[in-house]
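User: Hi! I'm a student and our assignment asks us to look at how structure tokens line up with a sequence. Could you show me two examples?

Assistant: Happy to help. In each example below, the sequence comes first and the structure tokens follow. Example one:
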Amino acid sequence: MPKTTLVIVPCGSSKVWSKNPTAGPTIARDAYVGSPFKVNRKYAECIGDQWLILSAKHGFIDPDFMLPGPYEVTFKKKSSGPIDLEKLSQQIKDRRLATFDEVIGLGGKEYRHAIETAFEGTEVDLQFPFAGLPIGKAMQAAKRAAENANIGEG
């Protein structure tokens, strides 16, 4: 059986509502408008069998999840009220995310910590291919990997 891969993309601080305050409810894949999210999304679409967004407010969400409106929650600032790591672990169980052979996590150290903690005790092969790289270098590497994946499919 072929190996199955889930890619987890971090949400972004740049959201559609900062550019268009009257946007209203927006699906997650279109709500995050910053360059890092766009590059990570492209990588996830090219590399993964499935991809999810790790929202600091909502947890693991599908790209088609409807976000009701703007929010400012981050794992970087506990006072912003990020989702509890136990709730993330419960989402792993409820959504059967540990049934993937491999999970690729993207984003900075706070997102890596959240993903590692959530998947603790599972048999999933966790990968963080761009861990430790400055954001610019991580974006370049993700962009290159996505381009190479597209070339391989052609």
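Example two works the same way, sequence first and then tokens:
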Amino acid sequence: MSKIYKYFGSSVFELVFDKEGFCGVKCSLPKDYNDPYELFLAMDLNIPTEYLAFYSDVIQEMPQFPTSCFSKSPIVSPMWAHYANNHTGFAIEFDLEKLQQHFDGNPFWDVDYREGPHKSLGDIVQRAAELKKPRYTYDLQRFAFSEAYFSKYAQWSYEEELRFVDTTGVIEKVAGNDILYIPMDCLVSVIIGPKSDENLITLSQEAVEEWGLDWYQLVIGKSHPQPYFRSYDGTICTFKDGDILAHDELCDNCEEPVSGGNEMCPWCSITEAHEIDAAAGNPFRLLSEAGQLEDYMRSMDAIHRE
């Protein structure tokens, strides 16, 4: 089972589940995306001007389909910071195969991250512009559609994005918004952020009990290199190979995930003897005890300002 994830701000939890038996996901048109480079049809501008003019004319007819963005990972910290309001919001885990079956005919496709235009685009434009046959213009528009909706510049690759595009008209208009209503059986879990308030914790736990979903809270640890999860029953889990799974090796003291057979995480491995040795060898402590630390810091700051 492949999983994908959608990040939300804390204030919309009840709104997302407002329709009985469904999860409502907002869609946007390409022209309304926040990022000015979203869906920008990157093109090699070194082609002949007449080809560029033909390309420009063809892509003006590019349809504006409602689109919603997902991620293939629930541990993308910038996504939690931006879309989940600085880790106070939540994410929903979906079963991708069930989504594809339910919305058959509408693409759920990975975003392709690249440094520049697709190498084939120039050749496709040239063929369509020179031969002026409908089938080649059709090929160009189809290719441009894929580029427009499913390619981004490489600097966005951390998002691990996958997009849904409504090409068959399945969205519903709600208060002026395009909403994709997803059946609850396509959902797997609700994940709340590490800074979520008690209200969201309570709402989300009550909701997953009613719907039969898993519940997790994201945890930002001191020593584990990536965020991990604590389940409803306290089980510590990590994200591995596209799935949230129980982690067998835990620190005996703080219960953070560890590896390599270690019983303690690096921080909990520090003993009182280590602390005493570290303090004895800290030159700042020696300067402080001699009453010279403030003068030393002022002199060093002055050197670095010069």
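Here is something you could point out in your write-up. The mean pLDDT is 92.
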